[in-house]
UniProtKB/TrEMBL annotation:
It comes from Mesorhizobium shangrilense. This is Class I SAM-dependent methyltransferase. Residues 67-160 form the Methyltransferase type domain. SUPFAM superfamilies: S-adenosyl-L-methionine-dependent methyltransferases. Pfam families: Methyltransf_11 (PF08241). Keywords: Methyltransferase, S-adenosyl-L-methionine, Transferase.
Length: 213
């Protein structure tokens, strides 16, 4: 788990940021799942849009299969199929969120699993991985990165968002280390932006594109 710091987000998201255990996170998202899309829309939630733009810039149309890691209700999955990525699998710790994602009918497989530990996929299983709004307070920390790198095929990309709180608490150093080791190349890094303009005091995040060597 990442840090547990609140960053001013009220309601359901504030509670999730403060969660201390993965089971707690899953339960909170389970109970939020039915109103998540409407709540995030009202907050002007930007991570899926930013991630989609980054993915489309760095991964050719038709690349397959992709993994939406921390897919939630499938906000980005809907757009991936429209923009030319035909086979996308969803992974999330919350069965309730995955049930909402399933209703959209855009994922070829749904995996109820936790990021942050070993994942049951072979090395290089995915041509690309997207993880929007997951590397954030109370969710997944830098410990979740190595497995995503392992299951992404060489030449593939991982598009993720990282909240500043995590970035400043070890994420930046870890990325620099992985680059120095030749494990990944930082293909793109956005300036920090506010992911939910409709929520006061949202701590900024950045979008990151890592190309796996
Ligand atoms: C803010 S939501 C983002 C969902 C989706 N990517 C989006 O942008 O709408 C965070 C998601 O991460 C999931 N999550 C939190 N911790 C997780 C973990 N350890 N492993 C897998 N998923 C996790 C939550 O269940 C939730 O669906």
């Amino acid at each position: 788990m990442a840090d547990n710091g609140h960053d001013g987000a009220p309601g359901a998201l504030g509670a999730v940021y403060a969660a201390k255990r993965p089971e707690e996170v899953a339960a909170l998202y389970d109970s939020w799942s039915q109103t998540y899309d409407a709540d995030m829309s009202a907050a002007g939630y930007r991570h899926p849009t930013i991630c989609l733009a980054l993915l489309a810039r760095h991964l050719p149309r038709g690349a397959s299969p992709l993994l939406d890691a921390g897919a939630g209700t499938g906000l980005i999955g809907e757009w991936l199929s429209i923009t030319g990525y035909p086979l996308v699998e969803a992974l999330d710790i919350s069965q309730g969120m995955l049930a909402q994602a399933a209703r959209k009918g855009v994922y070829s497989a749904l995996h109820c699993l936790a990021l942050g530990g070993p994942l049951p996929f072979v090395d290089g299983a995915y041509a690309g991985i997207v993880s929007a709004g997951v590397f954030t307070s109370g969710h997944v920390g830098v410990e979740g990165l190595d497995e995503l790198i392992r299951i992404c095929r060489p030449g593939g990309v991982i598009v993720l968002t990282v909240k500043n709180t995590l970035w400043d608490a070890g994420f930046a150093e870890r990325i620099a280390e992985l680059e120095a080791q030749g494990v990944v190349t930082r293909a793109e890094e956005t300036a920090p932006y506010v992911s939910m303009p409709g929520e006061a005091d949202t701590v900024p995040s950045r979008g990151l594109v890592l190309r796996v060597s």
